[in-house]
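Data card: per-record layout.
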Amino acid sequence: WNENSHEWDTLCMPMRAGAPGSKLIVTTRNEGVAAVTRTCPAYPLGELSNNDCLSLFTQQALRTRNFDAHPHLKEVGEEIVRRCKGLPLAAKALGGMLRNQLSRDAWANILTSRIWELPEDKSHILPALMLSYHHLPSHLKQCFAYCSMFPKDYEFDKDALVLLWIAEGFLQKTKEAARPEDLGSKYFDDLFSRSFFQHSSQDSSQYV
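The structure for this 208-residue chain is written out next.
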């Protein structure tokens, strides 16, 4: 960035308003960025403990922090969580995918999928996240794939995206006489619940 650029000015704006003694925390997945910006050694975040990862997973899948109300899912659920290797995004995505599915067979199908065997260094995608996409219904895959035209970190409006889906003819006709906007909103909410979309950190009314 040029120090006279608009982007640089936007970046520095909070620093000009900070009180004396304020500190900035920079988070990044890129060690090169950390090396450029740090004034103290980088602090690598570790994985979640198995118990914390399990709690996050069950909160997403069962709306509870344990398997007490669903003992038939406990063994297979714990094995799925072990395969998440303490990664919160993987636990959240898989939990969202299994939300409201109380069939042990459905959970076992996730556990025995061959996608877990795909080497991460070949796919560049966490197996758990690829699995989450693989198990999307075809109509949701189409809607999500459409979003690849947005640049990284692009903020968008839910209603505007639904209208784009409608214009492309992505919404399946149902027996119920639902408005296309309502059906598109349901598609969006399904993708949101599976962690494919999230609220923007800059504007809670927008999504990324």
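Known properties of this structure: Residues 139 and 172 are 7 Å apart (CA to CA). The chain has three domains: 5-37, 50-135, 138-207.

See the next section for split statistics.
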